[in-house]
Write a structure and sequence with these properties.
With 298 residues, the chain is of the alpha/beta class. Helix 4 crosses helix 6, helix 6 packs across helix 7 and helix 6 crosses helix 8. Bound molecules: zinc ion (ZN).
Length: 298
Amino acid sequence: MDVIYRYDPYAPLTARQIPDAQAAMNALVQGNDRLVQLVHRMQERTLGGDAGEPIVIPMCPMSSGLPLFPGAMPSQAPFAVVLGCSDARVPTEAVFDQSFNDLFVLRIAGNVLGSECLGSLHYAIRNLKDSIKLIVVLGHSKCGAVTAAVDTHLSPDAYVNIACTFPLRSLVDQIQVAVRGASHALDKYAGAAIHDKSLYRSLLVGVTAYVNAAVSAFELQRELSLYGEDGPQVVFSVYDFESLLVQSNPAHSSDVPRLRPAPRSAAELAEYAAEVVEGIMSLDDDDHESGYKLTKHF
Ligand SMILES: [Zn+2]
């Protein structure tokens, strides 16, 4: 199987146009789809499938945000800001198949908002406002920071280990809002008896990843209200390790937006948490070979 990057110096030079938030969302979702297709082709090949036709990826320095001539330097012009987790398995540009100068990226464990993060965000919005059309919060499944927050919620003894380390504690404390929201939504769906089930922890981690991304998006949207109507739109999503998709609900379907607008109120946030619980409970075990495997158990 061949993957070919091809540059034709005689082809017309074209700069990619991202005029609004919708175009930015389309570019990110289409990029994620390209990643999924590429990886699936490689996996099929690994399992003995046919190599098929080569995948030819057209390259152009201008549309790739690279200098066209030696010594030239493009102006910074990202079309989106992405707040993601530091997890090495979730490189932001690769997940969205984007290139140089496309994304202004903030990465911190658990994709939580801290003052330095907000400082970078405000810098971007004030100085790059002509190019930035969208703000994205990107969580991911099986997040270590989310798991630590869930563990401290389920077992207060575990909290002792981080209580004396302020930076760690502040990180985990920020995710507690999402853990509680996810826990409450699960209780509403299945009753408190769900806590006694052996897979409750995995389920809570799964739901919290989505709710935590929504909480960060909610806070970001509120933070950006000072820019009024002119502020960029905030959306959120979660990168799923099994499907490689960015999605706003574990039960992926064409009806569910891949990038979802930030909740505008606590009530919308709670509504979203309930949707995620319903989504995760609707998954078939067969669809998740190494996933939650929960539906049979509740
Ligand atoms: Zn993470």
